[in-house]
Design a protein that fits this description.
Layout: E1 3-7, E2 10-12, E3 18-25, E4 34-39, E5 45-51, E6 58-60, E7 68-73, E8 78-83, E9 92-98, E10 110-114
Parallel strand pairs: 2-10
Antiparallel strand pairs: 1-3, 3-8, 4-5, 4-9, 5-6, 7-8, 9-10
């Protein structure tokens, strides 16, 4: 079955950086477009970024453009999200998913807290 394990979150000051990872298993990772989503406290899921299966096409929600970079290593079945110049509004639990997957396929997520 689909298994997605996110890691790399933590507490960081505004302006700081984090690199999230998502280890995928249970499906042919290289065949699937993937996405990062996040859930801020008390809010619903918000998509952050999408990457195609080969990694050569990406898109971002406006609020993170120029600050976040999504990438993938299909040899390691791993998805990444480099987050720079973090802001308090980036706080939330971050999840990786297949682009057209269902929310119930998400893993435990990784908590990102941006605070001074």
């Amino acid at each position: 079955q689909v298994q997605l394990v996110e890691s790399g979150g933590g507490l960081v000051q505004p302006g700081g950086s984090l690199r999230l990872s998502c280890a995928a298993s249970g499906f042919p990772f290289h065949s699937y477009d993937m996405k990062w989503v996040r859930q801020a406290p008390g809010k619903g899921l918000e998509w952050i970024s999408i990457i195609n299966n080969s990694g050569d096409s990406t898109s971002y929600t406006d609020s993170v453009k120029g600050r976040f970079t999504v990438s993938r290593d299909n040899t390691r079945n791993t998805l990444y999200l480099q987050m720079n110049n973090l802001k308090p509004e980036d706080t939330g639990v971050y999840y990786c998913l297949k682009r057209f997957g269902t929310p119930d396929e998400r893993g435990q997520g990784t908590q990102v807290t941006v605070s001074s």
